Amino acid sequence: MPVALPLVVSDADREVLRSWVRSPSSPSGLVTRARIVLLASEGASNTEIARRLELSRQTVVTWRGRYRSAGLAGLEDRPRSGRPGTVDEAEVVVRTLEGPPGKLGVTHWSSRLLAAELRLSNVAVAKVWRKWKIQPWRSETFKFSTDPELEAKVRDVVGLYLAPPEKAVVVCVDEKSQIQALDRTAPMLPVRPGLAERRTHDYVRHGTTTLFAALELATGKITADACYDRHRNDEFLRFLKQVAKAHPRVKLHVVADNYATHKHARVKAWLAKNPRITLHFTPTSCSWLNLVEIFFGIITRQAIRRGTFTSVTDLTDAIRRYIDAYNDRCQPFTWTKTADEILEHATPKRPRTSFTRH
Question: Which of 151, 239, 281, 305 is the least buried, fewest Cβ under 10 Å from its Cβ?
Fold first, then answer.
């Protein structure tokens, strides 16, 4: 049997094929064809490709030939024979985008509701939605930034990230409030082959704590942390003094959000007495500019959400153990967006929004 020569695939086509393989929304058939062509371009034989992808050898030969003769277009499905479809795709799309009428009492269409309204099958509606990439069941949220000093604050904070001052330390501080010490009503069942970790849905709450943390920009380490029962200006000022003590005799730039306690008169008075410390505020509704928020997300996923705590003391001990271990393996976060790239979304052509995906 003659050995098939490696299939010649251009760099541009190779990148498209790889994107098809990576995309979770690509049709399975198209992904399989892309893998056939990629393996063929690496010199794999038809028999080897068929074995690795669990296909027949003839299937591999067919799609190699399709790509060789027509390129990427040859991998697409060809029009099927039979009677043409009778679904009015335009009507399905228009009715979907218009939304359901008030008489139905629903906020968005389901495929079955729209199918009943148009006297179609729900499968036909779903096919149109898939073709035109319409997903009525999905919803995203956004938040308008109404800060009149938006541009100045963005340039100030991003400037610190991209070009920190020489012989100075930049830290990002914030508090993560209302961390609950939750104890499950029954012991958790650990991970087993074929089984996920399981826990009861109900719990006993033993109290809450607030974590104050300062993330050092240059190293990514948490250089100061404290857990308090409350998060008033008293606690913030006490924590700010702890941050200053952790970085003595250097210019200290502190990034914080617009929470009222951060601008309290007592805090301003203390800063006036300590001119080496400068507070920089993120714009209103733009707390995502504060890099310590990334750490809060990490500690929530890795140490808090799935933890079991019998008391607040148990919770705070777990938080401190995690921070000690985190500092041994942490790396600095790299900020890549310039102020101009961020402010491009604040032009009159586009509303000032901060998108949060759920």
Answer: 305
Query: How many angstroms separate the CA atoms of 332 and 164, rounded?
Result: 13
Cβ atoms 274, 318 nearer than 8 A: no
Average predicted confidence (pLDDT) for the chain:
90
CA dist 178 and 242 (Å) reads 21
Tokens of 66: 């399709």
Q: Which residue's entry shows tokens 């794999």?
A: 44
CA distance 63 to 75: 7
Q: How many CB atoms lie within 10 A of CB 31?
A: 16
CA–CA distance, 315 with 153 (Å, rounded to integer): 35
pLDDT score of 201: 87
Q: In sequence order, which residues have a C-beta less than 8 Å from that of residue 295 and are 6 or more positions away?
A: 213, 215, 222, 326
**Token pair belonging to 78:** 């060809």
DSSP 187-235: PPBPPBTTB--B--S-EEEEEEEEEEEEEETTT--EEEEEEES--SHHH
Report how far residue 202's alpha carbon sits from residue 256's, in angstroms, rounded to the nearest whole number: 35
Residue 61 has pLDDT above 90, yes or no: yes
SS3 state of residue 173: strand
Question: CA 93, CA 37: separation in Å to the nearest integer?
Answer: 35
Q: What is the reported pLDDT for 204?
A: 93
Q: Are strands 168-184 and 141-144 parallel, antiparallel or unpaired?
A: unpaired
Give, in degrees to the nearest 5, the angle at Cα 74 between 69 and 80.
Answer: 130
* CA-atom Rg of the chain in angstroms: 29
From residue 23, alpha-carbon distances to 52, 134, 203, 358 in Å are: 20, 17, 39, 20
Q: What is the DSSP letter of 75?
A: G
**Strand (E) positions, the chain?**
141-144, 168-184, 203-216, 222-228, 251-256, 277-281, 353-356
- Both ends of the chain: CA-CA distance in Å? 55
